[in-house]
Each structure stands twice: as C-alpha cells, then as structure tokens.
C-alpha cells in the first residue's frame, strides 16, 4: 500500500464535490420536514432529476439547461407526492417509499436510449486571485458552479427560516399545523410549496451526479444518496448549517475510501465501499438528534 499516492489537497477538494449532491438533496428535504411533511421519496426524485437533467443537457448541449430540467423534473414528481398526501391524505411514509420505487422505474425507462452517452462538459470556475491562494485556493475556489450554488442555497435557507416572516410561517406550520390554521395560514399551500422546493433540490442533486461527477447516465446511479440525505437531515437536527457538517463527513469518507482503494489498501473493496454508509449510521447512533418538528408526518384535515 502506497499512501504517498494520496494527495491531501486533492482529497479535500474532492470532498466538496462528493458532498454537493447530498447537500442539495438534504437541504430541500430539511425545508420539507420543517413544514411538517416527511417525504421518503428523495431517492426517487434524485434519480428522476438525474435522468431528466441528462436528457435535457444532451439534447440541448447545455448543462445549465440540464440542471433547470432536473429541478423541474424533481419538482413535478414531488407534486405527485404532495397531491397524494396533502389532498388525498394518503400515508406519507408509504407514499414516499412508493415514490422512490416509481422514480427508479421511470428513470430506467426514460434513460434506456442514453446509456453510454457522455454528457456535455460542465467547466470548473477558477475564481481570480482566490483560486491562486496556496492550499486553500485549489480546495475551495476551483470548483464547478454547482458547488457554490449548493452552499448558497444552504445559507439562503438558514436566513429564510431564521429571519423571514415566510420562514416563521413555515416553521409554525411544521410545529403545530392546527394552530397555524387557526391563525389564518394556508397550511396545505405552505406545505405544497415546501414539497416542490424539496423536489427541485433533490432533482439538482441527482443532475449533479449525472452531469458532473460521472458524467453519464447509468441506472440506479444515485446508489442510496437520497437515503443518506434523509439521515443527514436527522443528524443535523433540522438545522441548515449543521447539515453541511454531515454532508462533508459523508463526502470525506466516500473520497477517502476511493483513495485507499487506489493506494492498494489490503482490505476487500466491498468493505471500503460500505464505509461511507457505516460511518453515517455510526454518527446517527452516537449523536443524539434534536427535537423533530411537532407536526412532522401528520396529515392536515382542512375541514377541521
């Protein structure tokens, strides 16, 4: 085993890239759950966003349009979940699981004719001056735009929930939807908007995998990323900034195990591949999650 082959600067830079799809999916789900809705269909929305974004990018030659298409695809699928759970009052857990299975099947069907095709290139940004700073520059300031978009969304969600009136209403709906309804707030409208935002973010996370990290379409390429995003929301105690820590932990372990494989570490590849998921489980067991929103997973009956 040759550990000298592992470049620590490249390792840390790769960590940010590996964490980005998890950040995008998790921050969307965080908003959904703060509104009192439990959507377990993140994996399905991510894989749908991955195939929609890939199809749009390949046919238009524009990765930017691909990401927009992915956000729309994820949002449309999330609206199906929203309609079933908020209007027809179906069970949120069962509907979310069904959404994941539906998304996996739909994406496999849509992507059949795109297997083996390379996505159009999505260039990195080399931020002037900052990108030339030794050590820090290559780690932080030489990534593709979606890395920074993901971070910007996290900061925006934090500010929205903490300082805006709309964020206060969303949190009120998530804590006690009956009280929020009594105060005159439209609970279903707030929840549907949160669900659409969560779907769009999950779609962006999926498209990041198919347009940047791979970049090509393969069936099931999310490989459990949606479930990791769900776990990280709980780990973060439904707080946006803490969510970054969980995503970077998962991304760091993912990149490290790939580097250890390349260095020829004398551990079976299967065990190394399991390590990011085992690390996530270990952290969830060790760290005690904060209190969940009071109305999480509860359906709202407008007739009350």
From TrEMBL:
<feature type="transmembrane region" description="Helical">
    <location>
        <begin position="145"/>
        <end position="161"/>
    </location>
</feature>
<feature type="transmembrane region" description="Helical">
    <location>
        <begin position="192"/>
        <end position="211"/>
    </location>
</feature>
<feature type="transmembrane region" description="Helical">
    <location>
        <begin position="64"/>
        <end position="84"/>
    </location>
</feature>
<protein>
    <submittedName>
        <fullName>Nucleoside ABC transporter membrane protein</fullName>
    </submittedName>
</protein>
<dbReference type="GO" id="GO:0022857">
    <property type="term" value="F:transmembrane transporter activity"/>
</dbReference>
<feature type="transmembrane region" description="Helical">
    <location>
        <begin position="6"/>
        <end position="28"/>
    </location>
</feature>
<keyword id="KW-0472">Membrane</keyword>
<feature type="transmembrane region" description="Helical">
    <location>
        <begin position="243"/>
        <end position="260"/>
    </location>
</feature>
<keyword id="KW-1003">Cell membrane</keyword>
<feature type="transmembrane region" description="Helical">
    <location>
        <begin position="40"/>
        <end position="58"/>
    </location>
</feature>
<keyword id="KW-0812">Transmembrane</keyword>
<feature type="transmembrane region" description="Helical">
    <location>
        <begin position="217"/>
        <end position="236"/>
    </location>
</feature>
<feature type="transmembrane region" description="Helical">
    <location>
        <begin position="96"/>
        <end position="115"/>
    </location>
</feature>
<keyword id="KW-1133">Transmembrane helix</keyword>
<dbReference type="Pfam" id="PF02653">
    <property type="entry name" value="BPD_transp_2"/>
</dbReference>
<dbReference type="GO" id="GO:0005886">
    <property type="term" value="C:plasma membrane"/>
</dbReference>
<dbReference type="InterPro" id="IPR001851">
    <property type="entry name" value="ABC_transp_permease"/>
</dbReference>
